[in-house]
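Appendix B, Record 12. Input sequence as logged:
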Amino acid sequence: MWKSMLECHHIQCQAIREARGLGPLGSGEKPSDDHLDVTLQLGHELLSWTSSFSSWIGAQRGYVRALNNWLVKCLLYEPEETPDGIVPFSPGRMGAPPVFVISNQWAQAMDRISGKEVINAMRIFTTSVFQLREHDKLEMRQRLVTDKDLERKVRNLDREDQKIQKEIQALDKKIVLVAGDGNSLSVTGNIVYQSDTSNSSLQGSLQSIFEAMERFMADSMKAYEELLQRSEEERRA
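Logged structural output:
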């Protein structure tokens, strides 16, 4: 599975890298209703994508930790103190059965593999999309002086942004729990962007996401290959 996912993200990354005609997110044209609707839909999809990825990582790590913690309770383990500190827990050194050894290695591997880089890349792209939406809203507000019919549209956009803010705040809480960092897409109140969006092109932002995905899958595949190798060694022993 991990090899297939790595190959898939490598192909995606290569396709984005070689793509032509993908310029800046903004088109320079006056924002239309369709443009604002598409931007909003894209923003929602990106929030959902980031949330799903965070949940996926959290579910894996939570399952492995729960399994390993349950197995540890079955061992008569007393931490050994030395002048250099407490000796790291090692079921193998204690002579525990292979399932304890493999489970402990699995838990350690999951703690080493971090999705933070992927999540941050998704943050940057999501932020760029919502910044574009804010820019379009600002242009529309400026046109209110000469076009009173836009007032209702702007009020609807403001209501949608309040919903977006709630989604972002909920996602921020999940990211802090899963990724273990305090960075966020926004703060309470109006949307406030704090990610580095110097690379505002669609191509560059997508490429960063899939490059991070590719590295994440490579680390995951390596960890599981080492786990499989250890399992085979324990089986032969």
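Confidence is low (pLDDT under 50) at residues 180-200.
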